[in-house]
Amino acid sequence: MGYALLFLILIGYMIYGIVSVIKNKQLNRAEKTVWIIIIVFLPVLGASMYLRGTFVARH
């Protein structure tokens, strides 16, 4: 249940961020593209860094 709630919050954050960037009239197309890439990949990079630090490969 906790993971599902966390997943919904993450998806909601991403959708909110993308919609707010698209609605912003002061940004040009390139700036909007950069912000959307940041919004999508920042949580993915954070999760991958957490998992890489938590689980150590056995030799």
Short description, anyone?
By secondary structure, the protein is mostly helical.
Largest sheet: none
Number of strands: 0
Q: What is the CA-based Rg, rounded? A: 15 Å
The low-confidence parts are: none
Distance from N terminus to C terminus (CA atoms, Å) equals 34 Å
C-alpha geometry: elongated
Class by SSE composition: mainly alpha
Considering DSSP H and I runs of 4 or more, what fraction of the residues is helical?
A: over 70%
Instruction: List the total number of helices.
Output: 2
State the oligomer.
single chain
What do the pLDDT scores average to?
89
Order of helices and strands: HH
User: Total domains, how many?
Assistant: 1
Strand content: under 5%
SSE layout and pairings?
Elements: H1 2-23, H2 29-54
Structure description:
The protein is an all-alpha fold and 59 residues long. It has one domain (2-54). It is built from 2 helices and no strands. The model has no long low-confidence stretch (mean pLDDT 89).
